[in-house]
Amino acid sequence: MNEMIFEAKDLSRSFTVGHRVFGDLANRFMGDRPPTVLRAVDNVSLTLREGETLGVVGESGCGKSTLARMIAGILPVSSGERHFRGEPYDSLLARKRDALKIQMVFQDPLSSLNPRLRVGEIVGEAAVLHGLVPRSRVKEYVIDILARVGLPADSLGRYPHQFSGGQRQRIGIARSLAVKPDMLICDEAVAALDVSVQAQIINLLMDIRRDSGLAMIFISHDLSVIRHLCDRVAVMYLGRVVELAETEQLFASPAHPYTRMLLDGMPKISLERRKFMPIKGEIPSPLSPPSGCHFHPRCPIATENCRRTRPELREIASGQVHACLNVEAI
Amino acid sequence: MSTTGFNDFAQRFAESRTAVISLLISLVFVACALFAPLMSPTDPYDLTQLQLSDALKPAGSTRMLPGEEVRANIRFQGGTASVEPASPAQTRQSITAESCGANCLGVGVAPEGTKLASLQIRNLPAGASVEGGKKHIVQPWWTVDNPEDGRVRIVSNSQLPENFTVLAIAKSLDRETDFVFRLGTDGFGRDMLSAILYGIRISVFVGLVAAGAAMVLGTGFGLLAAWRGGVTDAIIMRAVDFMLGLPALLVGLAILAILGNGVSKVVLAIVIVQWSYYARTARSFAISELGKEYVEAARCLRLSPTRIMLRHVLPNCMPQIIVLFTLNIAAAISLESSLSFLGVGLPLTRPSLGMLIASGYEFIFSHKYWISIYPGVVLLVMIVAMNLLGDRLRDLNNPRLDR
Q: Which residues are CB-neighbours of A131 under 8 A, at least 6 positions away?
């Protein structure tokens, strides 16, 4: 087994909705309407080994992106601990050059690039500022990085809007690679792209992983992408991890009812006539999540107990954990 | 912005003919401001050039040079007269004197036949008088207006004393010059055209400097509020609300009432009034930019907050701030003019357009309309042009308003 590169323990992040300084003061004096709290991520624990790729999958609004930003260290946690190679984030983030080892690729290829900067500046800025490359050599350095992500050298002086979606995502990846990261978090990195371009970007990420041994956290709502790319998969539902397993194991024998229903929804090539069972109901509002197990209103096997008890993660086979109270009943 | 981006922008800007015309007019005003000393026929700040005799002349009248004065002491001694020039040092005409028979002394100017406005003889001996002259009520001064041939005669019924000295003061006629007051003169005899050109200079200068300083200050506060959020944001934005709630002119009046007149104080007053517009705009656009992923990317690249705000967020807010700047220059100019009109703005010796309008106000009911009207029209055209320009820029920045 490889060394741990990243560990998260009981990460939570809540947002206060409609938080305003004077409004809060007024509320305090009037003594009514406590501010609504949204728990975007609720007690999530994850680990990542050197060189490993962890997939995080879930519906929109389940807290994947919030989790990604907390792991990347650009969003503070409400509670919980984050460690990078055994070091807590608080001390890591204070040393900016070491904090560069954690990088992120964003979802929207256009809004994640500053429209007023040229590609050369976008990619080279941080490397120069943090002293990874002397200013005099930054041009060759950026051209080199651009070549790695498959962009021509003349992209250097152009602006993001002059590129296609796939090329923009390559620029985003080049920007991360330029600071020599050890861990790359891809937040829906291919979701906004055409399917053919998706494949190119996934192949690029796999090439990069093979060449530099990056550890990756790959966040997506697309199960086929996850299956293709990841060693382990965490399934999230309404801010909580409901199942975590090796990819093969998860796709072969999903334990949690939510995972099963997600997998049933996957398109397959098969001669049999499939019966499609959509997950019934809507994803509940995270502002007022259901009691007990968040999934119980949509769960086919929910019991009275699910309404009351919050399920903890349990290990059933080696490496496979899930949070369902009565999965054994099926 | 790339060159293609700029060309595209220029092309879209040029689609509105109004906008192009206002841009040209604005540029003309900026040129007036820059080159006022070269363009204006006189220097309105040079108070020594002003002639009160030129005051309140309508457009197209010429400047008059007032007549010169020549003084000389005429010493009469034993029937002969001698002339000693008195100060100031003499110019073209010189005074002559000769006896013209018994008890008669002729005083004139050379060359002969010069037209004079008046010739005054002072300190006549007792009993003597000047032919056709009027005596001063108190002093022994005799004045002849428009003397024939430029000469007068001192006569006496009795014997003139053996020795006496008189002072002769000859005043030549006012002379017309080639200089034309194209837009008339104000109450001090100042050329209105020059005064307006210099007034544009002051107005544009005050507008640019005040709006620019307000832009820097307000944008800084806006970015700070957007970046810090929470209590800082609340305090800054409530201050902004407070400033926006007060009428600009009232605040300006109050500030200048405390600080007194002067260009720098007017600029300060305008900055205090206007910073809040920029703070509000900068904050709102910075907040929307801060929500974009490129800011998160910059944070992930561990760039300092200052760098993120100034290098990444600010340039993306600049188009909106520039639009506000254009509109606020016009607002600053009109505020400065209003304050000057109300008498608390700039000093009278360095009039801005508003000051000129105000100084003409007291004459406007005596048909001396040009002192107020011309600067007023110039001010109107300037503010309308800048507003139209700012409106067009704003429309271009807001795709929903475009077409």
A: A97
